[in-house]
Write a structure and sequence with these properties.
With 484 residues, this protein is α+β, with helices and mostly antiparallel strands. The chain folds into 4 domains: 99 residues; 98 residues, Beta-Lactamase (2-Layer Sandwich), CATH 3.30.450; 81 residues, Helix Hairpins (Orthogonal Bundle), CATH 1.10.287.130; 150 residues, 2-Layer Sandwich (Heat Shock Protein 90), CATH 3.30.565.10. It has 10 helices and 12 strands. The protein has a 5-stranded antiparallel sheet, sandwiched between helices. A 5-stranded mixed sheet has the order 7-9-10-12-11. The chain has a two-stranded antiparallel sheet with strand order 6-8.
């Protein structure tokens, strides 16, 4: 298997892999953010529940102090010790909660009154004398202790000394480790599920990306297999999505390339043939040229004539090559009647014919006057070549269409010669294609004149047509759409 490399020598990463990597990165970030957010919410809920529990427990004890009744005497409690013992006997603590009573002066080692609970000895607060002393001496009613055994949240309610008795305090202690462990386990479980989801996404994403990019790979493979000799491969178009549109665009490009290469091959063959003939003539005459002055003069005349013909062919080829450029025609507002009259005046010198200005369209249109004059003169020259002296050639323009000013305009050159044979009508506008002369001979041109006329018409987004002349002959019509 070959590895594609970049111009710098680094291995290329395929679009399929890049799509998959981006998908995995986005999903990993999203799933990680979800897991962290859930853990943060659970931890916040744990803190909120502990705070509510501490507030509730201390509030219940604070209400019991002034209202509680000693079951033995039926009266008020006479000592803090007795109050704490009776209250603790009646309470049920949560699994992670400790309810303690402390008696003795603040700052001294307190005496501890506790419920009978099975708490781990290493975490139970009632066995941690140092922590109890700190809580007893603390002036705040709520607090948190960071101990080697773990975090401890606490709250307390102070009890004033009675007659002859010791002061005391009611302490609620909560060990949040187990609650936090539940949140952490949920977090790690979400991470594990996210990992499984990423693995599944990898497989599914790889398959989906491959299916989506299959037409793109086919485009690349087809492009790699294309050669100038074989442009026939096409990509199957399936569906109506962007990939299908890409395949259609690529196929259309191949159609244009195939037509362009075919036209190029024909063009090169025909151009080679047309240029080879004058070159052969020039070489032959130069090789046979003798010392006789008259012979040399005739040879120079013939060679110069052939060189002039080659020059005209090259100029025409350059003109046709420029027809593909966007600035081939430069439209501007033109009075059609004035343009038609100017063309008529210019073409009258092309030959001894019966020239007739047949009609003019009196309106303004947008076109390139120089290119349009060039096309009309070429059509007139073509008419002269295929008629004899004295035959009539008509020049004119007209507006055609349903509207008052017409939907389009037509400029035409009509002759009354023999006409165009049907078999020639299909090819005369192609490059280097010459029809049979209407006098039964071949024309002397290179076969580019009507191709130039066609290029000028198409440059104006119009067309050139061949029609029969009433009474016999050929009429060439340049048809242009109007903007009005």
């Amino acid at each position: 298997m070959t590895v594609s490399r970049s111009p710098l020598g680094f291995p290329r990463i395929s679009a399929r892999v890049r799509i998959l990597l981006w998908l995995l990165v986005v999903m990993a970030v999203a799933l990680g953010a979800v897991a962290v957010t859930v853990r943060s919410i659970l931890q916040r809920d744990v803190d909120h529940r502990i705070s509510q529990l501490l507030t509730q427990e201390t509030g219940e004890f604070a209400n019991f102090v002034p209202q509680g009744v000693d079951p033995d005497t039926g009266g008020r409690f006479d000592t803090a010790d007795r109050l704490l013992r009776i209250y603790l006997q009646r309470q049920y603590a949560d699994p992670d909660e400790e309810l303690l009573g402390l008696t003795g002066p603040a700052g001294d080692r307190p005496d501890v009154i506790r419920q009978r609970r099975d708490l781990p000895p290493d975490t139970a607060l009632w066995q941690d004398t140092a922590s109890l002393t700190r809580i007893r001496a603390d002036k705040d009613s709520f607090g948190t202790l960071e101990r080697p055994q773990g975090e401890l949240r606490w709250a307390k309610v102070e009890i004033g000394p009675s007659a002859g008795g010791q002061p005391g305090a009611f302490v609620v202690a909560f060990h949040p480790e187990r609650e936090r462990d539940v949140a952490d386990k949920t977090f790690w479980m979400l991470l594990a599920l996210s990992g499984v989801a990423l693995l599944m996404t990898t497989g599914i994403g790889w398959a989906v990306a491959g299916r989506i990019l299959a037409p793109v790979r086919l485009v690349r493979t087809t492009a790699a297999e294309l050669t100038e000799q074989d442009l026939t491969r096409r990509i199957p178009v399936e569906g109506r999505d962007d990939i299908a549109a890409l395949a259609e665009t690529f196929n259309a490009m191949l159609d244009r390339l195939e037509r362009a290469f075919a036209a190029q091959r024909v063009f090169v063959d025909d151009a080679g043939h047309e240029l080879r003939t004058p070159i052969t003539i020039v070489r032959g005459h130069l090789e046979l040229m003798g010392d006789d002055p008259a012979d040399r003069e005739e040879t120079v005349r013939l060679v110069t004539d052939e060189l002039d013909r080659m020059s005209r062919i090259v100029e025409d080829l350059l003109l046709l090559a420029g027809a593909e450029r966007p600035d081939f025609v430069r439209p501007e507002p033109v009075q059609l009647a004035e343009l038609t009259a100017d063309v008529f005046v210019k073409v009258r010198t092309l030959g001894e014919r019966e020239w007739q200005l047949d009609g003019v369209a009196d309106r303004e249109v947008r076109l390139d006057p120089q290119r349009m004059t060039q096309a009309m003169v070429q059509l007139a020259q073509n008419a002269v070549q295929h008629t004899v002296p004295g035959q009539r050639i008509r020049i004119g323009s007209r507006a055609v269409g349903s509207r008052a000013e017409g939907d389009r305009i037509e400029l035409y050159v009509a002759d009354h010669g023999p006409g165009i044979p049907p078999e020639d009508a299909e090819v005369i506008f192609e490059r280097f294609r010459r029809g049979t002369s209407r006098r039964g001979t071949r024309t002397s041109g290179a076969g580019l004149g009507l191709a130039i006329v066609k290029a000028i018409a198409e440059g104006h987004h119009g067309r050139v047509e061949l029609r029969r002349t009433e009474g016999g002959g050929a009429t060439f019509v340049l048809t242009l759409e109007t903007d009005s």
